[in-house]
## 1
Amino acid sequence: MNRKVLILGGGGFIGSAIARILNARGNYDITIADIFTRDQDDDEFMAFIESTNIKLIKGDFTDASLFDDLDKDYEDFYMLASMIGVNNTLEIPHEIIRVNTALIYNSLEWLKTTSVKNVVFTSTSENYSGTIERFGYDIPTPEDIPLCIDKIDHPRFTYAVTKMLGESGFMNYAKIFGFKCKIIRYSNIIGPKMGFKHVIPHVVQRFLDNEKPFRIFGGDQTRSFCYIDDGAMGTILAMENESATNDIFHIGAEEEITIEDLIKEIGKHFNYSGEYVNAPTYPGSVSRRCPDITKAKTVLGYKPTLKWQEALIPTVKWYVDYFKSHEKTKNNSFEEPGKFFSDKK
Ligand SMILES: NC(=O)c1ccc[n+]([C@@H]2O[C@H](COP(=O)([O-])OP(=O)(O)OC[C@H]3O[C@@H](n4cnc5c(N)ncnc54)[C@H](O)[C@@H]3O)[C@@H](O)[C@H]2O)c1
């Protein structure tokens, strides 16, 4: 019998990658529920859906009544729906709070009424960046790090606050209402169609605009970058792992690189030989971040296949092609970090 799966937020970057992998395996009944408002909701995705038996339910799941359209007997529930993006946290933090809290609360209350067996809630490495910043915790960072945000009134942290609510909510509802729950904390999953409010599309756009000298915002900050297929596979491995329950996994890549490394590598794709200059980055941006993925490797058998330089190749190509063939929209355009240093609280 096919395994019955619901992916809330399955129209997005990671959710659609999960759907493609499960569909290719062939023994799943997949339902994708999503509001479908992303910029790149495209013909290619719809053609993919039409070539499959995947069921689509379109709607805004901050409205609890939409959960009435869902079945009750999914084996697996991937909860990926969320409002994301640094720009959104800085410009509309109240919407981050409203949307993410409602999606989490509605999902949890719906789960109480279902026979769903396995749940993955997707969280973020931003939940512990405050701990690293304030208390100097280990990098690479394992799952047992205490979660902390640096400044409670800073809009940048509204996203992490909602993800902490989700982690606590899903793990505690799981214990009371008897489903298996895994929390995935992603660190910078990259690939084609990752959205436009990320460092890579911004940088690609600026190289295409022939920015000279090329500014590197926060060049000494560090991150790690993991290819989408690896991130999606890590999520599926966590969902389908029989032994782990109420467990947290850091999914990402373990090589810590500087933003300067990243930008200069992207520059090579454009044969850029001009000058680079350093500039301050977005407020609230942490100086170092890299996950320890040992637990995911040993418990789940997770094994990233692409190095960050390899992951950049299809990613940069997709954005170059996209920007060359589409009129830039306001949504796509790069916003200078300096804009957010003004008087915004
Ligand atoms: N991509 C990363 O590197 C990363 C890092 C940390 C955490 N995450 C988390 O992983 C999950 C997936 O991330 P992603 O990169 O695929 O983001 P994404 O924006 O591509 O996907 C999120 C999906 O949620 C949907 N959604 C938003 N509001 C909705 C609503 N009201 N009703 C129904 N659907 C709604 C969006 O339409 C979108 O398709 C998110 O929860 C995100 O917070 C991702």
Note: The longest helix spans residues 158-177.
## 2
Amino acid sequence: MRVLITGGSGMVGRNLLEHTASNRFSIIAPSSQELNLYDFDATKKFLLKCSPDILIHSAGIVGGIQANIREPFKFLVGNLDIGRNLICAARDVGIKRLINLGSSCMYPRNCSDPLSEEMVLKGELEPTNEGYALAKIVSARLCDYISRENSEYQYKTLIPCNIYGRHDKFDPSQSHLIPAIIHKIQVAISNKKDSVDVWGDGLARREFMYSEDLADAIYSAIDRFETLPSIMNVGLGYDHTINEYYKEVAAIVGFEGQFVNDLSKPVGMARKLVCVKRLNKWGWEAKHSLSEGIEKTYKFYLEKHNK
Ligand SMILES: NC(=O)c1ccc[n+]([C@@H]2O[C@H](COP(=O)([O-])OP(=O)(O)OC[C@H]3O[C@@H](n4cnc5c(N)ncnc54)[C@H](OP(=O)(O)O)[C@@H]3O)[C@@H](O)[C@H]2O)c1
């Protein structure tokens, strides 16, 4: 089976390429230079030439809270253009099966209950990543409309919770929570500091899945594509406070200092836990515990920084 992966150089894409299941497929994973999704005509031409049996759309403009606050225009327009071009080009050239990656940012803010798939567009979005969320919602709806208008086209959306792991971004201006914590704590150790600051009170809760598990879920989705719901969360079903993530990383990295909560900094949503009822019914669950995932991520961080 020919599988085309967009975003093959990104964290999700690289974990797909490194996963053992990748050997079962003929995979094409062009870089953004080979396939620039901002260019609709070039995208169409590329898709026509490569003619995959299934397309996994994991390209996008992705960043942490700081980057999203700083550049909402880029996150909205970049992801809108990438999503629209890829999905519409796939439809135009007759690709029948597509898995689009959404994001839990698509859900309304501050819901205390787990976020079920029907809740998309049922409330106000979190302002700190609204641009990104709007673009992701448009792509998911595009997939839904295309499949509804013509049942030969099955364009489905997976909504992963937050992901961390190998090939993550550790640069503080780009990073998500877990790689940011790993980097911060490692820098504190290197500089012999006995305290690390935590944005906000650290009581906000977040759900983080190890990247290899997401890759595993995507290969299961390819294998069992016919039974895959048109939209489905991929999450753990449980979450931790930000303070707990700091403690877990500190235990693995070996940091024995203090954490100081900086209440002047933004924290985003109080909770963002996706509902995994549909996922469990479909028959998949993540395999890595938090400590296993953080250990592997820390090992990758050390290799990357030659430590
Ligand atoms: N990371 C998470 O926590 C998370 C959680 C939920 C959902 N997701 C979704 O998963 C997908 C992948 O995320 P990620 O974390 O792997 O992001 P990432 O590491 O930032 O990778 C993004 C990928 O998109 C590619 N890309 C960007 N602009 C492009 C363009 N104009 N044309 C073609 N390719 C382009 C990049 O290619 P270059 O490197 O060549 O620029 C890169 O391969 C995204 O849709 C994201 O919304 C991620």
Note: The mean pLDDT is 96.
